[in-house]
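Appendix B. Chain record.
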Amino acid sequence: MAANTDADRLYHMLASAKEAIGYVQNKTRDDLDSDKQLVHCLVRCLEITGEAASKISAQLKSDNPQIPWEYIVGMRNKLIHAYFDINLDIVWRTVKEELPGLIENIEKISN
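Structure tokens predicted for this chain:
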């Protein structure tokens, strides 16, 4: 059955963000340049996070401006449509610096 509720979509955002963070444990930025599998895993997690964010209701987005919805969806669009021109520095920074805060915010609004 399709995930149609905001709760389902928040769960998918949370799960994929946590998965991405798990992939970079004990990794360095240099690993991203040499490990194509790591790149593909992180990009896919960010795509899922963005796709789920794009399906969140306007009301939930409006009620939670602390989450950068447009940035998340925009990144997903860039990763999907400009797959040949992915900036790995941005991918790394997003996973290491932005996803922990996103996880915290999603957990707060999910409870």
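Further analysis of this model is presented in Appendix C.
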